Amino acid sequence: MRRTRFDDAECPIARVTDLFGEWWTPLVLRDAMYGITKFEDFQHELGVSRAILTARLSRLVDEGYMDKVPYQDRPVRHEYVLTDKGRAMWDVLAVMWRFGEEHLWEDGEQPLVELAFRDTKERVRPVVVDEATGRPVDLAAIRIRSRTRTRR
Amino acid sequence: MRRTRFDDAECPIARVTDLFGEWWTPLVLRDAMYGITKFEDFQHELGVSRAILTARLSRLVDEGYMDKVPYQDRPVRHEYVLTDKGRAMWDVLAVMWRFGEEHLWEDGEQPLVELAFRDTKERVRPVVVDEATGRPVDLAAIRIRSRTRTRR
Question: Using CA atoms, how far apart are residues A26 and A21, in angstroms rounded to an integer?
Fold first, then answer.
């Protein structure tokens, strides 16, 4: 049975859910952002079946998150390289990281890994703000409205 | 067959994926953030089966994203109210919104809805920055490292 699709929903969150709700897909994107490009390496890192990994990578290529690029001739071999659209998904993963490290470990426990800036070596704590004003995007301060025709 | 679980993974992204990868769950959380509390209202909004909605709400309650609170005595009826932990998931949804509106509509098309601040009426464009410094959390500027014992 095909799941209910959300990819033509009117809500942007629902459209992303259509992709992220496929088991393994956020982790495939994550590993791609960490520099993995080859099918065998994704499979080794994730421990996922070849069939599922093939399906997930195909969708990511079809929808423009990755390019499938030949890197060897005989036999022909491909690697999977993030596009700009794929790389833009990092924002979502970064905030998932923050939520996870803050809320999904037992009291007194913490993940063994953390995000840091390469240059300053300071730890990174991702938060969400408005691009133009820098204001926190607090749920209580936000509403959803119909887009007016003047706002193209 | 039980899916591979990610909820005890060492990676914070994987732990969130364990929840978000359940079809419908991000949309249940979204609707809760929009103020929906009653089972029938979630079902009406989402068009999801009672069985799936029951399972999704149960997990959200079990894992502390929502409280199940009686609001009526005879017959007893409950509503589902986001906890602080549940509300904190808004950050993830806000960034999914931004990604979706930017990348998941055809050229020249846009969602019919947008996010705006209640007070200023300005449109909100969520972006991810580092909490302490306000620096963008660009993938190229970040690395993952082992947590050192001094950084509690």
Answer: 8
